[in-house]
Specification:
The protein is mainly alpha-helical. It has one domain. It contains four helices and two strands. It has a two-stranded parallel sheet with strand order 1-2. It is globular, with a radius of gyration of 13 Å. The chain starts with a strand and ends with a helix.
Length: about 70
């Protein structure tokens, strides 16, 4: 089981640091599987929502969602 923290998810979504984003992408897309599932703590989920809320107030996530093929 792989424990994923807030930073990994934010790097995966935002993709603002190429090297770190590639590492986060690799963990989420290649290392997590049915056989080796990810563990996401409730606090991590709360932090992701908080970051999204703050970023939304700044318009950051809105621009990212429009430009990102993930959504």
């Amino acid at each position: 089981m792989i424990g994923l923290d807030t930073n990994v998810f934010i790097l995966y979504i935002v993709q603002d640091d190429e090297q770190q984003a590639q590492l986060a992408t690799d963990v989420i897309e290649n290392q997590c599987s049915v056989e080796n599932p990810a563990f996401i703590n409730e606090i991590t989920l709360c932090e992701i929502v908080w970051v999204e809320k703050v970023a939304s107030n700044l318009g950051i996530f809105r621009r990212l969602i429009k430009s990102c093929s993930l959504f």
